[in-house]
C-alpha cells in the first residue's frame, strides 16, 4: 500500500543538523478506506486526516501519516524485512538509511555540516536514477511477493465488469481486473507471470503509464484464490466482494457442457473476516 499510494519523506532541517523523515498513505475517501487507515494506526501508530474537497481536490481524500520517530522505526523494521519493490520507493528508503548514517557520522565529528547537507541534496537528486530497472529476474525470487501484491492491488488494482448487449438484445457481463503503474513495467510483468496470463499484453497508455488487464477466467481465478489467502482491505475489498459474488453465482457460462465455477478455498482468510465488517456485507456499488 505504501508503494502504491504512499511516500517516504527524508529531509534536513535546522541547518542540516536534524534529519526529518516521515511516511504517508493518501487515497480517495471511502468509508471502507477509513476503516483500513484506522487499522494501520492500531497496528503501527500515526494519525488519520480527512481532506475535504475543494477547487484543487474534486472529492474528499483520506491520509494516514506519521513523523513520529518510534512509529517510523517500527515501519522501517517491516521494510528491512520486506524491502520495497518499486524503485521509486526503494530509492527513497535507501536514501533515508544513508542520510541517517551520514548524520550519525556528523554527530561523531566524522564530517562537516556542509558535507552532510551536500550528501543529502545529491541523494535527493539521484535516488530515482535506477527507476524502471530491477535486480530480480522473477517474482519467484521474492519470498514475500504474494503478501506484497495484495497491498499493491489495494492501491493500484481495479475489479471491474464489462457489460455488452447482443444484436438480439441479450445483456451479458464479463469480469476484468486491471492494474497500472508508472515507470515500473517489470512489476506488471511479475503480476502477469504470477497469475499465468502470459498471453495478456501490458499496454503503454501514456509516456510513463503502463496498464495490465486480466480477462481470461483461469487467470482471474488465480487472482481470486490469491485474495482469499491474502485479503484485500479498503474499498478494493468491497470491489472484490462484488466481483467474487458475481462469479460464484453465475451459472450460464458453460464450456463443453461443463459448468466452470469458482470454488472457495477451504483455508480462505477472506471468508474469515468477521461478519458485519464492510467487506462481508456484499454491498453492490458502481466502480
Overview of this protein structure:
The protein is α+β, with helices and mostly antiparallel strands and 287 residues long. The protein has two domains: 2-126, Homing endonucleases (Endonuclease I-creI); 139-272, Endonuclease I-creI (Roll), CATH 3.10.28.10. Helices cover 41% and strands 22% of the residues. The protein has nine helices and ten strands. A four-stranded antiparallel sheet has the order 1-2-4-3. It has a four-stranded antiparallel sheet with strand order 5-6-8-7. A two-stranded antiparallel sheet has the order 9-10. A hairpin with a 4-residue loop joins β1 and β2 (18-28). α4 runs antiparallel to α5 (113-126). The relative contact order is 0.11.
In short, what is this structure?
By secondary structure, the chain is of the alpha+beta class. The protein contains nine helices and ten strands. A hairpin with a 4-residue loop joins strand 7 and strand 8 (209-214).
Amino acid at each position: 500500500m505504501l508503494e502504491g499510494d504512499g511516500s517516504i519523506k527524508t529531509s534536513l532541517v535546522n541547518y542540516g543538523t536534524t534529519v526529518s523523515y516521515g511516511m504517508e498513505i493518501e487515497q480517495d475517501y471511502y468509508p471502507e478506506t477509513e476503516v483500513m487507515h484506522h487499522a494501520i494506526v492500531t497496528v503501527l501508530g500515526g494519525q488519520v486526516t480527512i481532506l475535504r474537497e475543494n477547487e484543487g481536490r474534486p472529492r474528499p481524500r483520506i491520509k494516514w501519516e506519521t513523523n513520529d520517530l518510534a512509529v517510523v522505526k517500527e515501519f522501517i523494521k517491516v521494510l528491512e524485512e520486506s524491502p520495497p519493490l518499486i524503485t521509486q520507493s526503494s530509492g527513497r528508503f535507501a536514501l533515508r538509511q544513508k542520510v541517517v548514517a551520514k548524520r550519525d557520522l556528523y554527530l561523531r565529528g566524522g564530517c562537516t555540516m556542509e558535507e552532510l547537507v551536500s550528501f543529502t541534496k545529491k541523494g535527493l537528486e539521484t535516488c530515482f536514477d535506477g527507476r524502471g530497472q530491477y535486480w530480480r529476474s522473477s517474482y519467484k525470487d521474492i519470498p514475500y511477493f504474494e503478501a506484497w501484491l495484495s497491498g499493491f492491488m489495494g492501491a493500484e488494482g481495479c475489479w471491474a465488469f464489462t457489460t455488452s448487449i447482443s444484436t438480439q438484445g441479450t445483456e451479458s457481463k464479463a469480469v476484468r481486473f486491471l492494474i497500472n503503474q508508472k515507470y515500473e513495467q517489470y512489476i506488471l510483468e511479475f503480476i502477469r507471470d504470477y497469475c499465468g496470463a502470459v498471453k495478456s499484453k501490458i499496454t503503454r497508455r501514456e509516456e510513463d503509464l503502463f496498464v495490465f488487464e486480466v480477462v481470461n477466467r483461469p487467470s482471474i481465478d488465480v487472482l481470486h484464490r490469491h485474495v482469499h489467502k491474502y485479503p484485500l482491505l479498503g474499498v478494493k475489498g468491497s470491489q472484490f466482494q462484488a466481483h467474487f459474488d458475481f462469479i460464484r453465482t453465475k451459472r450460464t457460462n458453460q464450456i463443453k457442457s461443463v459448468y466452470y465455477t469458482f470454488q472457495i478455498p477451504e483455508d480462505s482468510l477472506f471468508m474469515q473476516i468477521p461478519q458485519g465488517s464492510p467487506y462481508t456485507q456484499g454491498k453492490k456499488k458502481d466502480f
